[in-house]
Amino acid sequence: MAPLRLGSIAPDFTAETTAGEINFHEFIGDSWAVLFSHPADFTPVCTTELGEVAKLAPEFARRNVKVIGLSTNDLSDHARWVDDINEVNDVNLKFPIIADKNREVATLYDMLDSVEHDPTNVVGGIPFTVRSVFVIDPAKKIRLILTYPASCGRNFDELIRAIDSLQLSDEQPIATPANWQPGEDVIVHVSVSTEKAKEIFPEVKEAKPYLRFATLPESK
Predict the structure, then answer these.
(1) Coil/strand/helix, residue 193
(2) pTM assigned to the model
């Protein structure tokens, strides 16, 4: 199988989850999706991550993003672990978590760790997943890939910021600069002339001929 890259169609699959059996592409439907993996249930970093995503559920929903987790345990473990996640983080986790005990989805998305990278994340010769993130658009294309080691919890505020950038650049001929936050100036796409940019945006500031900052129109 060819490696997954930005622009690849996200591989489809059917899997058991805490919300019942799902077909991944049907689950996505006309929404965006975030598929993110966890090495195992009842692990400390994962427990904080899933709690954080549960807290951010309204933010993902506001952006038309469906979230689905994955861990290499069975459904009975997931059910007990969700109780812990809710208790520790004071949340009510609603999004589905894939029960990928046989690592079929993890293999499909190349999420598995290696002894060469982290021998503590391979037990008895069986690898657990790294902390993979795939952002997928309504056309089922992969738009962003992040990979963190098992030891490093993810920054989900940054993930939401990146989704904001992706969605905005789909709507407007722009890119976003370093450390950009919603509401700040953006960069005019290189395919757009300065003259044309001045027709599109309320204000255009030229730092260099190839670097033009623009103020976005106010949302109605």
Answers:
(1) coil
(2) 0.92
Dmax (CA) of the chain:
63
* Chain position carrying tokens 């929903």: 61
Q: How many residues does the chain have?
A: 220
**Active-site residue, selected from the candidate residues 35, 46, 93, 142:** 46
Residues facing 141 on adjacent strands: 9
Map residue 70 onto helix, strand or coil: strand
Measure the CA–CA gap between 69 and 27, rounded to whole angstroms: 13
CB 85 within 8 A of CB 47: yes
pLDDT digits (tens, 9 = 90+) for 167-212: 999 999 999 999 999 999 999 999 999 999 999 999 999 999 999 9
Q: Classify residue 149 by its DSSP letter.
A: -
Nearest residue to 27 via CA among 8, 38, 14: 14
- Report the alpha-carbon distance of residue 168 to residue 162 in Å, rounded: 10
Check if 152 is active-site: no
